[in-house]
Amino acid sequence: MEQIVKKSLPNPFSKKLDELLANSWIQVENKHPPNLYDTVMNTKEYKSNFRVLLLDEQENRCCYCMRDMSETEVNLEHIIPNKANKDKYAEYANEPIDQSGFVHKDDFKPSRSEATYPAYPHDIAYQNLIAACETFPHCNCTSNNSRGSKFMPTFTYYKGITKALLVSSSGELRFTSVSNFDEKYLGIKYLNLNTDMLKLFRATWRFACSSYTIEDLKSADERKRMDFLMEAYPLVKSEKDTFELDNEGIWHEFLRYSWFYDYFKNSLTI
Ligand SMILES: [Zn+2]
């Protein structure tokens, strides 16, 4: 993971949100429709707009597993779950998420349509949304699916989150002992970032960074790929691994995790 630094407001995201909120205002009733999330975010045109803006901010990578993503693969992930009630919402009070630009969705009750809003409902607010991949069952980056409304630290906003995580030689992601984060967040009930496939991908990138470049691997034809794997497998693949990187689809998937190449190059290994 890598720290995501959000832009201050107003920004292209909030301006688009202002436009959507203005359009959804019901003049005769003098209010917004009751479920703004569905009205504002759940439309194809606007989901697409927000996906592009967030992907750009994250250099086209998933906020949790660091997989390269294209716009159509992006899920808009809520840091504070969209269905969190006020008690659950309050658990984020001391987290490093800038809450100056939003309120709990139940507290968003403007009396008139505004040109810009001082605070947006949390389920559609820019600071509460990040781009995550949808690769279940390989990971649970769309974590609302698995954790429901349970609390999870706002990992991607922690300064130094990259250093709080270590990758073992077998590709397993762990928190450092000083980070104080519970290992359960990496497990199956939360982000599920230690699946066999993800571990194999990471271990293979760790091996690759010693004598290959990312470009070597991205441009490798089938023969070069096999040569590389013959060299890598004895060091990275365990007997229980059933995934074969010589399968073109899986190789392509592996290449999307090249963020780990630089990660290992920078010697953050244990
Ligand atoms: Zn992901």
From the alpha carbons, calculate the radius of gyration and give it in angstroms: 21 Å
Q: Spans with pLDDT under 50 lasting ≥5 residues?
A: none
Count of helical regions: 11
Shape: elongated
Order of helices and strands: HHHEHEEEHHEEHHHHH
In this entry the ligands are: zinc ion
- What is the averaged pLDDT score? 90
Helix content: 25-40%
Number of domains: 2
**Major sheet:** 2 strands, antiparallel
| Structural class by sheet pairing and helices | mainly alpha
Give the amount of beta strand, in percent: 5-15%
How is the largest sheet built, in terms of strand order? 1-4
Distance separating the two termini: 16 Å
Describe this structure in words.
- With 270 residues, the protein is mainly alpha-helical.
- It has eleven helices and six strands.
- The strands form three sheets. It has a two-stranded antiparallel sheet with strand order 1-4. The chain has a two-stranded parallel ribbon with strand order 2-3. Strands 5-6 form a two-stranded antiparallel sheet.
- The longest helix is centred in the last third of the chain and has 16 residues, at 196-211.
- The chain is elongated, with a radius of gyration of 21 Å.
- The relative contact order is 0.13.
- The model has no long low-confidence stretch (mean pLDDT 90).
- Bound molecules: zinc ion.
- Residues 62, 64-65, 67, 132-133, 139, 141 line the site of zinc ion.
